Amino acid sequence: AQTVTQSQPEMSVQEAETVTLSCTYDTSESDYYLFWYKQPPSRQMILVIRQEAYKQQNATENRFSVNFQKAAKSFSLKISDSQLGDAAMYFCAYRSRFTSGTYKYIFGTGTRLKVLA
Amino acid sequence: EAGVAQSPRYKIIEKRQSVAFWCNPISGHATLYWYQQILGQGPKLLIQFQNNGVVDDSQLPKDRFSAERLKGVDSTLKIQPAKLEDSAVYLCASSLGLVGEQYFGPGTRLTVT
Q: Which residues of A4-20 are buried (b: 16+ CB within 10 A; e: fewer)?
């Protein structure tokens, strides 16, 4: 069974600094998607970035980038130039590809990011 | 465009009572998801619909939970009877299709006393 592990319950970063959130996963599949979602306090969850497992290039979205290590089953999120608005719960998530025949969205337990002014 | 709508936003019930949650996905989104998010945990997928058909309900406690998506648009999730451990935020999400980006609603916070 697929699992997603976020070993950092809480992280802090100084405004304008860089922080990396860790995520590891376990799967026997070769094709899948990985995601980072942001859930601000009392607000809706939104997608931050996605990575397709068959793509070797790490995904980047403005200040957000990932370090995808497929062999190590690691998928970390780097936030550069942190802003106060980045404060939120961040969830790592796994989804098997359509061709697997079944869909499994599995979320980690989340990392609470605090941004210090 | 309007986002995913959910109601009610908050609900407090006693154990053994029944409760229903409603979700209206983004217009045109064929895929709809219901998640349960217990405090301190990540969302757990309960059921996934493609139009009005079920794609996956392997984690839905079918002895007490039921969900439907009549006409392939709005969806209702019901719990009958509720247990204390059902206290959680119930999130609805939708996507254009099975491989599209998920858009989440604000959630319904359920407290079972």
A: bebebeebebeeeeebe
> What residues of chain A lie within 8 A of the CB of B36, using their CB?
none
Task: Report if residue B60 sits inside a domain.
Answer: yes
Which residue in chain A is spatially nearest to B40 when comparing CA positions?
A109
Chain segment B49-103, per-residue pLDDT in tens: 999 899 889 899 999 999 999 888 999 999 999 999 999 999 999 999 887 889 9
Interface check A93 vs B, CB under 8 A: yes
Let me know if residue B50 belongs to a domain.
yes
- Find chain B residues with C-beta within 8 A of A106's C-beta: 45
Domain region containing B12: 5-97
pLDDT in tens, A16-49: 999 999 999 999 888 899 999 999 987 889 999 9
